[in-house]
Amino acid sequence: MGILKDKIPMLKNSLRMAHVWMDEYIEKYYSLHPTAKDFDYGDISERIALRKKLGCKSFKWFLENVYPEILNNSSSSGGSAMDGRKYERWDQRKRNYLNKWQIQLTNTSLCVESEEEPNRKGARLIMSPCASITRQIFYQTDKDELILAKLLCLEASNKIPRMGKCHDMRGNQEWKVNRKEDVVLYNIAAGLCLAATEDRPGAYVDMTLCSTPSMTSWHLIDQDITS
Question: Is the pTM here over 0.85, yes or no?
């Protein structure tokens, strides 16, 4: 088959994954790995049954909602796109913005701010004197996302809030906001609230149980959503 012996376990695992998850797009896999066409990847019936039991979405849904870049890359490289969907960059998708806020720690003059530029994925949040700058401006959407400067979504990542690529799947990017004064920002997936570690400039923002009102209570400063 022209496959090096030390590559066989890797090929078998990738084939099993492709046949469990790629649905009608499996031929795209074989177009990239033609020598794998007749390779024995073993029994995957249990993995397929588990996928059905968990109600996982289709690979087509993943391409359209999570990783549409792959469709664009296919077209721009001269190949055929996986479907006819018009490419739309993840940070340029149309969203329904409901509110535009600064997030101020109650009874202080400190606001939540990205530690790095608004387009930097993985950036942590810190407390900083409130100022009308892009690193402090969050937009709330109808999916309960909090999007910094209309670029990155606030997500609960291993109990540490960070800025990440918006995936439109709610979960760790879904924040419940129940009121405007003495607000708690509750993340559904983490089961924790956004919290300041200290009430001083430069202190990190963390996640904790919602029963610490002095550090988890926020005031949402309204901004003009049309500007």
Answer: no
- One domain, residues 65 and 106: no
For the chain, how long is the longest CA-to-CA vector?
70
What is the residue range of 28's domain? 5-76
Helices (H), the chain: 8-21, 26-32, 45-54, 59-65, 69-76, 213-216
Query: pLDDT tens digit string along 60-96?
Result: 887 776 666 565 555 444 444 444 444 455 555 678 9
Q: Are 170 and 146 in contact (CB under 8 A)?
A: no
Q: How many domains does the chain have?
A: 2
DSSP strands (E only) in the chain: 97-105, 110-114, 125-129, 138-141, 146-148, 152-157, 160-164, 175-177, 185-187, 192-196, 205-208, 218-222
Q: What is the SS3 assignment for 57?
A: coil
Residues in the chain predicted with pLDDT less than 70, given as ranges, are: 1-8, 65-93, 180-181
Residue type, 140: Q
